[in-house]
Amino acid sequence: INSGAITSTGGVTGTVGTFSSDVVANAAAVDDSRAKLHLGPGGRIAFEASATADDRAWRMGPSDYSSWGGFEITVSDNNSSLPSANDQVVIFTKERNATFAGTISGTTATFAHPSGAGHLYIEGGGSSPNVSLHLNDENSARLWELRSDGGLSDSLQFIDTNEVVLTLNQDASATFAGNVVAAGFDTDGDL
């Protein structure tokens, strides 16, 4: 075929193909001039797994397992299955939120609000959860933990390895596990 459109009610197969314009699949109209691959509603891209045991099949596209208007990336459990509802790696919502299924790793993370105060929220699930920020060394050994005790005390604890060093309580009291050392200070209150 030298020119003109290719229309097929079945599949189009081949080993090599060159397109000088857009590639359109199941799309009613091509209205995004910046995109070169156009998939119709519900269109997804799938990557097959090889026969290698550690390989996985991947799929990306509009959400079909989470809320409408989102975009998700999923991965299969093994090299002989396809991704399913429990295989989401990341979900992007139309509200511009992202949910990651696993650990996010990196050397540096910066969270910056472009025009106002920034906030970092760590939310626990279930009944009375502990929520913690762990500071680990290069070998993933915990050095310090800042823990909000979600139990009845609702205290804030500073933990060195496994020992609570300081506890701040909601009644404005503080409990130190060891000695409090201070040099040259003045106080108007009781010690």
Give me some keywords for this one.
191 residues; mainly beta; 5-stranded antiparallel beta sheet
Structure notes:
The chain has no helices and 12 strands. The strands form 3 sheets. The chain has a 5-stranded antiparallel sheet with strand order 3-4-5-6-7, with no helix packed on it. A 5-stranded antiparallel sheet has the order 8-9-10-11-12, with no helix packed on it. 4% of the residues are buried. The model has no long low-confidence stretch (mean pLDDT 82). The chain has strands at residues 23-25, 37-39, 45-47, 58-62, 71-75, 88-92, 98-100, 131-136, 142-148, 156-160, 163-168, 174-176.
Question: What's the topology here?
Answer:
Layout: E1 23-25, E2 37-39, E3 45-47, E4 58-62, E5 71-75, E6 88-92, E7 98-100, E8 131-136, E9 142-148, E10 156-160, E11 163-168, E12 174-176
Parallel strand pairs: 1-2
Antiparallel strand pairs: 3-4, 4-5, 5-6, 6-7, 8-9, 9-10, 10-11, 11-12
Kindly, what is the distance between the CA atoms of the first and last residues, rounded to a whole number of angstroms? 91 Å
Strand order of the largest sheet: 3-4-5-6-7
Number of strands: 12
On the 0 to 100 scale, the average pLDDT is 82
- Unreliable runs, pLDDT <50, ≥5 residues? none
Class by helix and strand content? mainly beta
Number of helices: 0
Mass-distribution shape: elongated
Question: Strand portion, in percent?
Answer: 25-35%
SSE ordering:
EEEEEEEEEEEE
The major β-sheet equals:
5 strands, antiparallel
Question: Helix proportion of residues, in percent?
Answer: under 10%
Radius of gyration: 27 Å
